[in-house]
Amino acid sequence: MDTVLVVDRLAQQIASMRKARGLTLVELAARSGVTRQKLAEIEKGSPTVSINLYAKVLAALGAELQVVPARRPVFEELQEVFR
Questions:
Q1: How confident is the model at residue 75 (pLDDT cuts 50, 70, 90)?
Q2: What's the superkingdom here (predicted)?
Q3: 67: domain range?
Q4: Which of 8, 10, 56, 73 could form a disulfide with 45 if both were Cys (CB 3.0 to 4.6 A apart)?
C-alpha cells in the first residue's frame, strides 16, 4: 500500500472526528498542544508532520491509532493521491 494513501486516510479520519465533535481547528489545536498550522497540515495529510503530533491530536479527540490489514483503495482515493 502506498504510504501517501495511508497518511491521507488518517488525515480524513482526524478531520471527520474533529467536525463530528463540533470543534474548530483552533479549538482542537489548543486541546492537543499543536499549532493550528500543524493541525491544518495533519488534516491535509502531510507526511512531513511527526507521528508524535498525529498522536497528540488523536489523544485530544479521545481516539487512538489502530493497525489493521490494508484494504485496496477505491477509485476516488486514487484520484486524490495523483491529483
A1: confident
A2: Bacteria
A3: 3-81
A4: 8
